[in-house]
Amino acid sequence: RIRHYKWDVKYEYKSPDCVKKLAITINGRSPGPTILAQQGDTIIVELTNSLGMENLAIHWHGIRQIGTPWSDGTEGVTQCPILPGDTFSYRFVVDRPGTYMYHAHYGMQRQAGLYGSIRVSVPDGVSEPFAYDYDRSIILNDWYHKSTYEQAAGLSSDPFVWVGEPQSLLIQGKGRFNCSKLTTLNLEPGVCNATNPECSPYTLTVVPGKTYRLRLTSITALSALSFQIEGHNMTVVEADGHYVEPFTVKNIFIYSGETYSILVKAEQDPSRNYWMTTSVVSRNSTTPPGLAHFNYYPNHPQRSPPTDPPAGPLWDAVEPRLAQSLAIKARQGYIYPPPATSDRIIVFLNTQNKIDGYTRWSVNNVSFTLPETPYLIALKESRGNAQHLFDQKPPPEGYNFTSYDIYSVANNTNATKSDSIYRLKFNTTVDIILQNANTLTNNNSETHPWHLHGHDFWVLGYGEGKFDINSDPARYNLVDPIMKNTVPVHRYGWTALRFVADNPGAWAFHCHIESHLYMGMGVVFEEGIEKVGKLPSQNMGCGITKGFWKP
Ligand SMILES: O=C1O[C@H]([C@@H](O)CO)C(O)=C1O
């Protein structure tokens, strides 16, 4: 079946947390429309850029784009940006059931509000390994009052201006900023309006006794989150489109770019409402929790619960977060075991660096920059000129394991910027070890959610401290590891992944924190480029392809 959408993308004033701000909308909405599809459907999104003065690209996060690498929507990697006024047609197949998302992948545009849910159901006649009565999508997000322009300019300035903590957390696009705190930012009357219906709390109405599948998606710019429903347990059943061996928790940790399905039964006292809350973990954040109503029918949806919202977990407790990461296993009966060995092991040391006075993030001391010609085009359509279009020197496969101290501020004066890429032999098995380290601040290491385009990977293991190639692989879970497309690397820890390079194209792999990617925290993989079909001409028009057009 073909599902055809026509989307118009523009800036509009919105008040998602009661504070009026320019937000990017799709057909007037942020979050944008939910894509509802069935496994095997073809999705066509005809996207018109009505932003007026800004380019655009949309990434379909979690969709592998098998056979359509040009529809991945990653500006600079798989396509030229969509220019103001232009219409671009994304076409791809949703080949697996599960919970996914879409969002802007141009500059730091995602955090201006361009995002939404993708929900792919199983084909008719196929049943899922768990039961529920109702299915709902909930997107968690953080929200800044400053514009993307101010933030991006600060990040690429010397002296560096950090974006800081977000002002609000949004649950399904709604939050609530305390207007009395809006003193210095903007004093125009009407800028903060606590009675604006746009920022009335999100409510999920439940029928007593019924079970709800909540598809949680985090699309935060910065924050790692905990999500909890007062007085209710939740059973985790899906992660990034893969069934999880069920486990029950009181709160779930979710990192930017991840999705989870949880089952919640409405089995508490039905005479009242309950809080759903989300709060920041892993950063000592000033951002207040986001609040929503878990509304037992027939109570009024906007009636506040009689209790105080439950406090989330302590922001700096790493143990429970690591424990959740370790608890996520593939569901019995749905295990796709990884190949027993790999052909190549690449270690990615994550560091914060100063390069020419600018604050950057690096992988193995190389900070990523995008080339003028997107890689897919450079590799496919450069007519023999690819070597001039990006740095051909292969980027490093690891770091100096013996001498590098991950617990100290690095003296990485040798760090560089580069647009070189990792070229993977087609159909080989690749292991990636994400190694965390200290930032430029003493005694500080941050959590980074890494997202891979075009593939799912097996999560083989997590550990604390420095990964040891001689002993740690013995701890890998090769029996029932979950497959995901986004995974956290915890502070001062490592995360080991395995994937098969079987999807012809050029694929980004990066930290899903918007500012960190902007500051260079990513890499690109190429595999099987010779198997990629002819690129649609709509992907071109920048870099070397500018010269292809003849009147
Ligand atoms: O990239 C970042 O920069 C700041 C800080 O390290 C320097 O101000 C921060 O918290 C980040 O995550």
Automatic annotation (TrEMBL):
Residues 9-122, 137-297, 405-528 form the Plastocyanin-like domain. Keywords: Copper, Disulfide bond, Glycoprotein, Metal-binding, Oxidoreductase, Repeat, Secreted, Signal. GO terms for cellular component: extracellular region. CDD domains: CuRO_3_AAO. Gene3D superfamilies: Cupredoxins - blue copper proteins. Its main location: secreted. One of its GO terms (molecular function) is L-ascorbate oxidase activity. PROSITE patterns: MULTICOPPER_OXIDASE1, MULTICOPPER_OXIDASE2. It comes from the Eukaryota. Its EC number is 1.10.3.3. InterPro entries: Cu-oxidase-like_N, Cu-oxidase_2nd, Cu-oxidase_C, Cu-oxidase_fam, Cu_oxidase_CS, Cu_oxidase_Cu_BS, Cupredoxin, CuRO_3_AAO. Coiled coil: none annotated. Belongs to the multicopper oxidase family. Dimer. This is L-ascorbate oxidase.
